[in-house]
Amino acid sequence: MKFRWRRSNPRPDPGITEGMQRLTFTRRAMLVSGAQVGVAGLLAARMTYLSVVDNERYTLLSESNRVNLTLIPPRRGWIVDRYGKALADNRVALRVDIIPDRLDNRSAVITRLTELLQLDNDTVDRINRELDAGGGAQPVEVAADLDETRYAAVSVNLPELPGVVPARGFVRNYPAGPSVAHLIGYVGSASAEQYKESRDPLLLTPGFKVGKDGIEKDFENELRGRPGARRAEVTARGKLVRELATTNDTPGSTLQLTIDADLQDYAARRLGTESGAVVVLDVTTGGILALCSMPAFDPNSFTDGIGRLEWKMLNEDDHIPLLNKAMRGLYPPGSTLKPMIAVAFQAAGVDPEETVFCNGGYTLGNRRFGCLGRHGSINMRHAIEKSCNTYFYAMGKRVGFDAIAPVAKAFGLGEEFELPGTRQRYGTVPDSAWKRRRFDQAWSVSDTLNATIGQGYMSVNPLQLAVMTARLATGRKVEPRLLLDSQAALPDPLPYSPDFFHAARQGMDWVVNAAGTGARSRLAIPNIRMGGKTGTAQVRGIRGSNRGQSGEWRFRDHGLFVCFAPVDEPRYAAAVVIEHGLGGARAAAPVAKDVLTFLYDRTQALETLASLEAGWGGTMRDRLQRRYAAYQAAAANPMSPAPTPPEVGAATGAPPAAVPNAPPAATAPLPDPGASVPAPTAAPAAPPAQTITPAVGTPP
User: Fold this and answer.
1) Are residues 373 and 406 in the same domain?
2) Helix (H) or strand (E) segment spanning residue 148
3) Which sign, positive or negative, has the C-alpha torsion 541, 542, 548, 550?
4) For 599-646, how does the pLDDT look when each residue is reduced to its tens digit (9 = 90+)?
5) Residue 292, Cβ density class (10 Å: 0-12 exposed, 13-18 middle, ≥19 buried)
6) Which GO terms describe its biological process (predicted)?
């Protein structure tokens, strides 16, 4: 067999020469070299851009690795009264905060802080809740207003307290405490939502506070000021090496109010243990001199971060200390309405000298509407003096409430005033059109009789009563103001004849200075006469022997009083409402007397207050602190009896009453705007009807 021999290395393809192979290699080398040159060019260009164009930015970033910039919270602007006395200022304070994202071993740190600062359980609970709710760089306050000893104890133990930041700064201070709580409001730490909305780093700065309510909130931009800054050199771990530079903060603007700080504090203290409100106006300008609601809270507690127990105590109080009763409390005005009704009668053509015979009440069909007594033949002035319901029933029926309602509105009832830092509930001035809209029912004569004496559907707040009185005293459209303005113009006259006001003012003069219902509260000041009108407002219908003069606190009648002084040349007007005070002459008029006395004779007024506070157990702050201490003790020992609320009636010397035990929702009548005590003649489609008919012997 023959085998064909084959060469193991075949000949190269004669089509690919050595020169061609060299050429292919050269092309590849050039391609790789070009890519390398391109990349090098890009790197060079980028380095040139970073070193030339972005030089300043990266220099700053490099600097920040060793320089720490800390914002200095600005001092809030002061809020002062008409004389420059502080209602809200700032004081130097030592504080300790925790920055959550720097916190390690949270439990150990809080335990150590509890030992060093002697924190109570309520404060520890608040810190844990705020740490759970917050996070990041948002500071959580541990304690404020520390003494030097406790502050130093934290400072020397900082190495074992990561995330803890001690600081010296300013804290908001309210010198009068509870007296200005509802007027000024309070401040607190910014919420997470506020930071997300503005992304302002100042909101995360430890110790910085923002307005949360009232004047503090409405004027936040004016009061805030501009922050300062502190530059310091630090190590990689944040340890201070040296201070570099400091830019001082710019305090916020000072805000001046029409309030008289001393009068505000006196009026609040004079309310004592009662639940109610006092409003005082300067009738020449409309400036609000005092606007008090009691009981109240201490706004300094909110500044430091209110604890869970204290918040719980305030919320459980059936006297509702968190409600501004001066502007958000709604009450039937009762007989305080009668002087204004007298003007409406005259505008409708009633002669003030015309008389009505009072035999103790007024009969409408088969129903009897009672009066305070048997006054015989009585005209308009004496009807105001004696608070004769029969006169107003008879004239109200003749005139009709549709003619009275526009006058009531002209006097400020049912009106929401343009006041900063306030949220008002404007109540109800009813008429036939209102009832048709609200209940789809026709207005009845009994609706008129009830509304004419300030009951039924009528509801107002204390500020409106003070404005009504100021307009009665001057005959002008006095507008309430809170911001002091030296250029305040004289109010315009009301669209009624000046003669219409004479009978009303004279009747109010006789209420106090003759044999009227407020005679026991006349001023003991030579040549100063106060005119006024008492009022008793029922909070539920009369049933049998239940007259609103006894029983549970929440079912007792309200006491009201409106007044102005001096009678011959009015300068001041005031309104006082005492919730469930049993009567205007008994509860409200003595408070008004002392408040107006303070305007003319401070020594006499303060002597009266000192003797009263001795019986109440000290000042507002003293009583509030004792009550909170008792509440804390009761919470710590659930088996101990609950703290006893203050006795109702103590503010006016009335005998002790039953301990209030109503739930908060059932306290005073605080319906939505437009709501009030149901009228006696409501048809089946309306809410359950109540008979609001004053009985013989009910206090005015």
Assistant:
1) yes
2) helix 148-156
3) negative
4) 999 999 999 999 999 999 888 888 888 888 888 788 777 665 555 544
5) buried
6) cell wall organization; peptidoglycan biosynthetic process; proteolysis; regulation of cell shape
